[in-house]
Amino acid sequence: MPVYQHNLKDKKIDFNTILDKVRVFAPATVANMICGFDILGFAVDEPGDEVKMYRVAEPGVRIRSIVGDGGRLPLGADRNTVSACVKMLLNDLGILQDIGVEIELIKHMPIGSGLGSSSASTVAGLFAINALLNNPLTKDELMPYCVEGERLACGHGHADNVAPALMGGITLVRGGADLDIVKIPVPKELYAGIVFPQVDVPTRDARQLIKEKVLLKDAVTQWGNIAGLVAGLFQEDYDLISRSMQDVIIEPSRAILIPEFYAMKEIALAHGALSFGISGSGPSVVAVSKGPEVAELVTTKIQDHLSANGIESFKYVSAVNVEGPKVLSFND
Ligand code: HSE
Fold first, then answer.
1. 25 and 103, same structural domain?
2. Considering its fold, how many domains does the chain have in total?
3. Taking every annotated instance into account, which residue ranges of this chain make up the domain GHMP kinase C-terminal (predicted)?
4. Is residue 100 marked as binding?
């Protein structure tokens, strides 16, 4: 069923079963999967964000603290995307005036990294409130609130980060008002080698660089690649995945924001990556690889190259995270 056809009118919340506290993790994501701008994405095991949520006596939703954001995120309940989305959900359930909730957000990844930082926080917050309320909503029902969080965070409601962050695995986004989120099978040996060069690229800015018009020949190449990638994922055909994960539309505009992009690409492909490109809107880059060894080698070589050029970086090597968000604890 399209995501927006769910409605919460018939949900009954049993106040006797609401929990006192919950601690939740939601994963980072690699949006676009190189060729599928705004429609494809996958979740990774690390990094990710945590939300601790507490039920309190005083009604309303408040942010208690944010750790790991360097003071950049707003604490006001209507401006912070986590609390704003939780408020929206409680309002639609008709219980915003009746329940008190306080939130601690613990960020384990930088803002503006291209790893779906805001999405991980939003998804963690919505997964946490659902857990606190004793899971009255399905993930499909939570999805529209996650998309709203993305709209608040960067001015555009693309779902290619929030969808895999919430659903886990690899997801395909189709439609707008009739949004479908489709899960795609995950080939067992598909690994991501991610390198985050220490520069800040806000998604808003990275989106402004993209040309509004594309040539038909480029569009044909790109939609062939998207279809080839989806087929390759279904068939576990790593060669087809490799040939298909190429971006002739967005990467040429955005690569200039990322230091050493084309040198990193050469290193990745020379050391066996299936494909290399920008993770989300950058500056993180991703070497999609068959097996962890290649991902490990490629990311090490890329980091060596960046260090030699005076650029600090973080790296993460991960299989595709098929679980999505999870409860870490009900006690702290
Ligand atoms: N699809 C988005 C973009 C992901 O590339 O701008 C970043 O949020």
1. yes
2. 2
3. 231-306
4. no
